[in-house]
Write a structure and sequence with these properties.
By secondary structure, the chain is α/β, with parallel strands linked by helices. The chain has 16 helices and 16 strands.
């Protein structure tokens, strides 16, 4: 007869009975096909109600530990005996997580100032969307995103970048990394891809994860080297022509036409144009996109709202030439959209009602003031005479060249020990390039300018101690 000690007052009796019997089955104390006591006998022997045992048996039955025979009772199923492992509270299984850096000031972080986000407007639009679009919010979104957002982006690109595109050419995704994976699937993993060197380091990691060959092409003063591209044997080139990261170079129209001409020589050649912070060019009008200059459907255009709104929104998009858009619908439209309907409809309303344009204009002015204020602080600090600024007044970062004999690694380590982080340009090269030594990236989008005079003095004392004499 099965007799158990029901002593856990916090756990339901039926659950305790279930666990007792399950443990005996797994340990082999109850053999396969052995008949269990009747519900009444079991209940009376253990001083519990019949319904308690009924619930326990039902749970065991639903999980396959026992089976029943009509008018006969319950029997133990044939299950491989497992010896229960004793639990030891002292045993831990740690996960190796990346070490969190202890820093106070990150001069190269691309984080956007959280106070610049239009929370009140976004909240108002969100409430309107929830109140007025209940049915649409619950519908399954097409793989390329809601028509409302794609239509809004199409209108924005027409007015801001001079691009005439259909909403059906636009694909919405949660971040550019996801869109890169779609492009690799669309164009093929067997192609040779190429990227700028130096360049966005996450790209090389993405290509590596997909076991795709990637060649890194050097740059000159006008952007990616056309000679390097011509000799690369690559089929696809990924570039940031409007404001290259990290050098800040803006590719002139002449180089853009050369790259378009390179792509036109073969049906298998394509250009991925990353226009990631084109909204924040303050020195003249933006040069037309490669996509708008393209006459042979060779350019895939990618952009994101991470810079213009917030990286936490995780909404990016790509514009495919019509031929590739057709292939996308045939090959990849089975994927579910990775951005929620709530955010898509809210962003669509934000763009269509003119709030996005107003926000961009406000932030362009704000970042312009940030940049000029930071330059003024640098010039009036003890760093004066020890640096040069390389800036084309575009985007949210510029380069600073330090007049030091210290290696980039020494500069980085010495400042990091004092909780100041600054990224050297050299770390974005896939191949060693001594000509990039002593160049560092300064991103001013989220810097606290009140702290910068003290930060500059600290940097000067750490790198140029003789300035105090």
């Amino acid at each position: 007869m099965l007799t158990y000690n029901f002593k856990d007052k916090k756990k339901p009796l039926y659950l305790q009975a279930y666990e007792f019997i399950k443990s005996d089955i797994l340990s082999g104390n109850l053999k396969s096909n052995e008949k269990l006591p009747s519900k009444r006998t079991f209940a009376e022997n253990n001083g519990v109600s019949i319904i308690t045992i009924q619930n326990a048996y039902d749970l065991l039955l639903s999980e396959g530990f026992v089976y029943s025979k009509p008018r006969s009772g319950y029997y133990v199923s044939k299950i491989q005996s497992l010896k229960p492992t004793e639990k030891h509270s002292g045993i831990k299984h740690p996960v190796d997580l990346p070490a969190k850096e202890d820093i106070d000031i990150d001069l190269s972080s691309n984080i956007i100032n959280p106070y610049s986000f239009p929370f009140s407007i976004w909240a108002k639009l969100s409430r309107q969307i929830i109140s007025n679009l209940e049915r649409e919010l619950m519908e399954v979104c097409p793989g390329n995103g809601t028509y409302e957002l794609r239509s809004a982006i199409s209108s924005h690109l027409s007015s801001f970048r001079g691009m005439s595109v259909s909403p059906d050419q636009i694909v919405i995704g949660a971040g550019t990394e996801y869109l890169y994976s779609l492009i690799l699937q669309l164009l093929g993993f067997d192609k040779l891809y190429s990227t700028e060197n130096p360049g966005y380091d996450k790209l090389s990691k993405i290509y590596s994860q997909y076991h795709t060959k990637c060649k890194y092409l050097d740059m000159d003063d006008n952007g990616i080297s056309i000679n390097a591209l011509n000799h690369s044997k690559a089929s696809v080139v990924h570039i940031c022509p409007n404001h290259h990261f990290p050098t800040g170079i803006t590719m002139p129209a002449s180089r853009r036409y050369e790259i378009l001409e390179w792509a036109s020589r073969s049906n298998d050649r394509f250009i991925i144009e990353d226009d990631y912070d084109s909204e924040f060019r303050t020195n003249g009008k933006p040069i037309p996109t490669l996509f708008s200059m393209d006459q042979r459907e060779k350019v895939i255009y990618i952009n994101t709202f991470s810079k213009s709104l917030s990286p936490t929104i995780r909404i990016s998009y790509m514009v495919l030439p019509c031929s590739l858009a057709s292939q996308y619908y045939k090959k990849l439209s089975f994927y579910s959209c990775t951005v929620s309907n709530f955010e898509q409809y809210t962003l669509a309303a934000f763009i269509k009602q003119g709030y996005f344009e107003k926000h961009i204009n406000r932030m362009r002015l704000y970042y312009s003031k940030q940049r000029e204020e930071l330059k003024e602080i640098l010039i009036n600090s003890s760093l004066q005479g020890h640096f040069n600024i390389i800036d084309n007044e575009s985007g949210l970062h510029f380069l600073i060249k330090l007049d030091t004999s210290l290696s980039d690694k020494t500069v980085y380590t010495r400042l990091l020990k004092n909780k100041i982080k600054i990224a050297p340009l050299s770390q974005y090269f896939q191949t060693e390039d001594k000509s990039s030594d002593h160049y560092f990236i300064i991103n001013y989008s989220n810097l606290d300018m009140k702290k910068m005079p003290e930060v500059c003095e600290t940097i000067a004392s750490l790198l140029f101690p003789s300035h105090e004499d």
